[in-house]
Amino acid sequence: xxxxxxxxxxxxxxxxxxxxxxxxxxxxxxxxxxxxxxxxxxxxxxxxxxxxxxxxxxxxxxxxxxxxxxxxxxxxxxxxxxxxxxxxxxxxxxxxxxxxxxxxxxxxxxxxxxxxxxxxxxxxxxxxxxxxxxxxxxxxxxxxxxxxxxxxxxxxxxxxxxxxxxxxxxxxxxxxxxxxxxxxxxxxxxxxxxxxxxxxxxxxxxxxxxxxxxxxxxxxxxxxxxxxxxxxxxxxxxxxxxxxxxxxxxxxxxxxxxxxxxxxxxxxxxxxxxxxxxxxxxxxxxxxxxxxxxxxxxxxxxxxxxxxxxxxxxxxxxxxxxxxxxxxxxxxxxxxx
Amino acid sequence: xxxxxxxxxxxxxxxxxxxxxxxxxxxxxxxxxxxxxxxxxxxxxxxxxxxxxxxxxxxxxxxxxxxxxxxxxxxxxxxxxxxxxxxxxxxxxxxxxxxxxxxxxxxxxxxxxxxxxxxxxxxxxxxxxxxxxxxxxxxxxxxxxxxxxxxxxxxxxxxxxxxxxxxxxxxxxxxxxxxxxxxxxxxxxxxxxxxxxxxxxxxxxxxxxxxxxxxxxxxxxxxxxxxxxxxxxxxxxxxxxxxxxxxxxxxxxxxxxxxxxxxxxxxxxxxxxxxxxxxxxxxxxxxxxxxxxxxxxxxxxxxxxxxxxxxxxxxxxxxxxxxxx
Lengths: 337, 325
What we know:
The complex is a heterodimer.
Chain A: E1 3-4, H1 6-20, E2 24-28, H2 47-51, E3 56-58, H3 63-75, E4 79-83, H4 94-101, H5 104-107, E5 117-122, H6 136-140, E6 146-148, H7 153-165, E7 170-175, E8 195-196, E9 210-213, E10 218-222, H8 224-239, E11 244-248, E12 251-253, H9 257-267, E13 270-277, H10 282-293, E14 303-307, H11 316-322, H12 326-336
Parallel strand pairs in A: 2-3, 2-4, 4-5, 5-7, 6-7, 10-11, 10-13, 13-14
Antiparallel strand pairs in A: 1-8, 6-12, 9-11
Chain B: H1 5-27, H2 42-49, E1 57-59, H3 65-71, H4 75-82, H5 116-130, E2 136-141, H6 148-159, E3 164-170, E4 173-174, E5 177-178, H7 191-195, E6 199-203, H8 207-222, E7 228-233, H9 251-258, H10 262-272, H11 278-301
Parallel strand pairs in B: 1-2, 2-3, 3-7, 6-7
Antiparallel strand pairs in B: 4-5
Helix pairs in contact in B: 1-2, 1-3, 1-10, 1-11, 2-3, 2-8, 4-11, 5-6
């Protein structure tokens, strides 16, 4: 089976969907310019050669227009895959996403759908406060949107394809340190997991999480980069005789809550890890869910590990203190036992 | 295509009488929320929509009744929506500020000022990509032309030669703010030049003038030559919303605009210039009244939404759908 990076897997997913369905097209900044980057992290590299500039649309730097173009064309029968260079730029199109894309179906009494995809890179990577935020939680708070966050190459292709085929607006959050972007666009300190990605057509259903490591002592729920740090922490804990079960939610809306509940029923302990600021992150929602529906199974208080409530900083030692690391996860687990 | 003056008259009278009627119903407490009435601006909706086909797209604003009626959304479905009934255009989930019917090309109205403009560009993009010959119209007020979304959409529409019309209804006030307090230019149409598209100023109270300009812009759009900005100079004869006492403008100004009433003057033109038989206009008036009575009866008789309807239509049933599935 071919092995590839997440950037390559998403690219393959886009390519397959565009070959399969003439309604699918891409739009964004710097995505298809000849001699350009193929998007900020090389995901769309080479696609304009195959599909032409009629289907790989390079837009002006106009995020509200990008979102509006995606929404309007989606309602009228197209299947747009839009992207922003950095997730932080989603705020530039917040009205279009939160007031328009999310609500048009409801406001219309269910007479139309908005089948659009919006891809957004997240994660702190030495770029200071405005190219670094992890914004998944914002969008989990808006009914009408779906929120996915693939952490492996297999999932990246499968979730992208599921998102394109989904009839509702789907936001895909991708982590800069997981892409495996190459050349001038490679990221310092990147993890760049390489994974097996079947050449054939498959989807990863939206709303289904995955158990990445089984264990009986504690459940750790973590997405994107934090999944890998949690897996590393689980390895360290295993050496101390503590068996952590690690769950990758893969989708935050809709959330595979039974997967989490079933795991905690077994382990009796829940730690949730995210790179976003602590207060009102999606981890808080998972904690509340647990308190509501699984309180009786808990042998210890629910714990959260997240970035502190400060903007993402620039200087490497500050950024290291900001992004949760393996040690914080290990310490949190130890405090629960 | 010859201009059908009687149809234009009928559309305008329907809009005027619809708005006057819902205003009375509102005062009687039979409509449960505020209304943004279109009285005085009827020539814009009628003039532009008469230049469109059924499958062309219209995006409208928080003041949408006129555009929806002119594009063919049923009066009774709009009425039922204003009553908050399950048979309304949005099953009671939208209300006055979100009426629309995608089956006749009208998106649910977008009540965020300027918010509909990039979406209209998206509808136009779909027409261009699908080569289906459709055009999209974005209606907006003067206030919207100072929103960032408007400028982004203007630029990309001109750049990509999207088949669309930017129809500005400059009614001289953005809520209570006079045009001069928000613009340092004499016309909004001038801004078209900055983006590389034609900009036209037209008397927005002259339905034939609006229709002619719109028709040219539609032809240009269908021919692949790109968008046009049309600034219709008009006047909102009523307040911004139902709670507006209009103390920011003078009665003299209001009286002056009353003499430019688009329907009164067009009726006069039909009778005096085109020698239309007054009886035929009376028949139109009566037909409108009958349609409105039917619309009210329909809205009255319709059921309210069930409490469970709250939860439907957030996601599409065909997709995996649902929060916390």
